[in-house]
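Changelog note: in this version the structure field was regenerated for every chain. One regenerated record is shown below for reference.
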Amino acid sequence: ASEYETVVTLEENVKTGGFGEQVGEFLEENGFKGRFVNLSLPDEFMEHGDTAYLMHKAGLSVEDILQKINY
């Protein structure tokens, strides 16, 4: 992480207790001064549907991800 200005985690898991939360905590504890973006599913009931629809509803479509990381 010391070589980069931004660290992004992306997971198909809820944010609370997930991989990204652990990475963020590690970065903070080790003095990371850059930008950290944790992208994950909301911790709420998701309706049924195909994967593309559900990822869009969760804000994890390709377009959503690119916008959130300012690619």
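Spot check on this record: The first strand starts at residue 6 and ends at 14. Residues 10 and 39 are 5 Å apart (CA to CA).
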